[in-house]
Each structure stands twice: as C-alpha cells, then as structure tokens.
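Practice problem: predict the structure.
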Amino acid sequence: MAVSKKIKAALEEGSWIRKMFDLGEQLRRQGEGVTLYDFTLGNPNLEPPEIFYNTLREIAELRIPQKHGYMSNAGYRDVRATVAERINKVHNTNLTAEEIVMACGAGGAMNIVLKTILDPGDSVLVSVPCFMEYRFYTENHCGKLIQIPCKEGFDLDLTALESAIDYSTAAVIINSPNNPSGYIYPEETIKALGELLSRKSREIERVIYLISDEPYRKIVYNGDLIPSVFAWYRNSIIVTSYSKELSIPGERIGWAAVNPLAEDRESLIAGMVLSNRILGFINAPAFMQRVIGKIGDISVPVEEYRRRRDLLCNALKEYGYDFTLPKGTFYCFPKAPGGDDLAFVEELQKERILTVPGRGFGLPGYFRIAFCVDEEVIRKALPGFRRAFQRIESRTHPEALKTHV
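Answer:
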C-alpha cells in the first residue's frame, strides 16, 4: 500500500468544504464560459489594509543581521511582547511575551497545543457544528474528538457536555464567532462553562483545558462583543490567526496565548515551544512576524461583510429559509429545505450555486453559505436560491409555498 491506512481513510472521507470547492473547479473546466456562484470556501475577498502593503515594502527594504535566519521557536520576543499588549487591552489581562507563542496560523497554533497536552487515548470535546479539521488535528496527536450536539440556535449544551466528560477528557474546544453558524457564545455561557470545567477538573483530578479558537474575533456585526475565556477559566488557551481580520490566510501567521493563571503554566508553554519545533513548523514565518509587530491593531472594513450578510440574509428570509442571523464571521448556516442537506446542496447546483452540506461541520440538515464574495455574485445568485427553495417546498410543503411566492 502506497499510503498509511489512516491517511487512506482520511482521503476517502475528506473535507466537504474542499470537496465542494474542487467540484467547482471541475465544473469550471467542463463548462467554459458558464458562470458559477461559488460560496464554498471561507477565503476572504477583501483586500488587506493599505498599511499592510506599506509595511511589507518597508520591511522588505530593511538590511538587518539574520533578518531571514532562525529565531527562538516561540518567535521574536519583541513581536510577542506587542501581541501580549494587544491581548491585554482586549481581555483585561497582564500577559507578557512569555505567555505568547507565535505560530503558523490558527491551525499551527491548535496543533502545538494539542501536541503538548494529549496522551494517546485522550479525548477532546467540541460542540457541533464546528470546523471539522479539529478531528484531524486531534487524531494527529493520538487523541479522539468527541462531538457534542448544540442547543437549538447553536448555543453550547452544557448538560450534554458535562455528560461526555470522563477521565480521558483533556480539553474542550470552542470557536466564537462560530464557523459555520456565525453564532457568538454569550458571556453567561462562557461563565457557566468555566465553572463546569473547574468542577469537573477537580472531580477527575486532571486539568481540562479550554481552547478558544478565535480567528473571527474581529469579524463581528452590530457592536457584539466576544466574551473573554481568560476572565472565566484559568486553564484556558487562545489560538488565532490574522487570516480573516487582515485577509492574509495564505501567509500562515498567528499565535497561541496561555492564561497567566494556568496551572503548570511554564511547562505548558515550554511544551508548546518544543512542539513548534518537533512538528516541523520550527517557527512562525519571520517576515510576517515583523509585519504583524509593526502594523498595529487593525483589520479589514467589517462593514463591507455586514452589507454582504444583509443582502444575502434579507433575501433568504423573504424566500422562506429558516436560519439564525449570523452575528459574526462571513458564513450563514440555514436549515436545508426538505431536511436533507446533501439533496438540497445538489438542488442548488442545478442553479450553478455551490455551497457546503452541514454534515461537513458535524450537523446534517443544514448547509453553509460563505458570503465573503463580491456583492454582485450574491445578487446574481439570489434568483437561484429562490428557485431551488421553491422546487423543494413544492414537493414537501406545497401549501406553505404559497406564502413565499
């Protein structure tokens, strides 16, 4: 066999996001000149802020010793100190450079954390819907990802979460604003989660880490705030990237931050720094670290994503789609008309609209629309969303359809 059984199984299952994206590429090749409305990939379409380009040019022209050489596996100390200062302003903490490890994006940050805390057979809990790469990340380090159903409306089901905790539980992952739902966990939920994990950690006599994946923290609408996990649980870790807020996902730059109050903090951080090296990342990209350290606390104009959200969601609501308005991210996660997410995604394909079935996020019966596309793409796709909805409704609820025609 050319590849391992584990990789062969992963290839066969694959990522639904990538499957649908690859389908779009195939359809483009087959139908030259045919317009596709591709809402599959969370690839931000806004340009990075101008200061990003200016800083790129400035740093490219610098001539300093070892500019492109190795540095500490944790990253440049001055950059980590700057990141810590920015975090302190948001979370009202007192982090220093020592609590920060620069990483190759949020994915790299998540992997160094899991590599550090997981023993073979340990479990990691996550509420679905979620970004299903978490499963691969967990299995990379001999752990098992356990999916916990959410409440109606996507809030955490803490009763179900508590029932799943046992002596193998090493961590809980949350993602807020959530991909794919755009839901923001309220402060009362985060507070209750912190209390639950504190109590269960004492019961099973091991630390259960709370890992908060926050690449969409700045992609929020209407002034909504993201509660700080640091404020409500001491054994918490934040991982994030600049991919979404600066529109630079291909640059692979992010960080992990450890709560200064975490138990065994020094060993945890040392393990993450070591994991950066032994996983082959070595260190976060030197050039991007220097850029991030200089550009300040900026982001793309989120108002433009809000306009896209409102354009799409106002129309979907008019047509009769059932969904929770996303408070953040650039995704909408409606219920699939007719109840079968695969069948409805295929129905949309008849309109040359590409979306991702909800089972790709652990929650069948829904589908994800990534609205980080040009507004004109949304406008031109809307009639197709309407026709697909009407066809399904005419088969399953013909009487209900009359109210949406």
